Amino acid sequence: MKEHFDHPDVVVCPGGPLLLRGEHVIEDAEGRQHRTSRPVSAVCRCGKSADQPWCDGTHKVLPDKLKP
């Protein structure tokens, strides 16, 4: 029987990060693995965050053409 969840595990924020709910393992560009430890984690999609692979909000100041 398939479990029912009242929210998705992954949410794509238009022009912003990927939100992950629950436990996940993220692999960065160098191949290092990062385990999520918060109820909701934001993963950078613009590539400009100083806290890769996590979102630090930098996408908010980027011109629209550089947003994910």
TrEMBL record:
Keyword annotations: 2Fe-2S, Iron, Iron-sulfur, Metal-binding
InterPro entries: FeS-contain_CDGSH-typ, MitoNEET_CISD
Lineage: Bacteria, Bacillati, Actinomycetota, Actinomycetes, Jiangellales
UniProt-listed Gene3D superfamilies: CDGSH iron-sulfur domain, mitoNEET-type
Entry's Gene Ontology cellular component terms: cytoplasm
This protein's record includes keyword Magnesium: no
Protein name from the UniProt record: CDGSH iron-sulfur domain-containing protein
Occurrences of domain Iron-binding zinc finger CDGSH type (ranges): 27-65
Pfam families: zf-CDGSH
Range of residues in the leader sequence: none
A molecular function (GO) term: 2 iron, 2 sulfur cluster binding
Organism encoding this protein: Jiangella rhizosphaerae
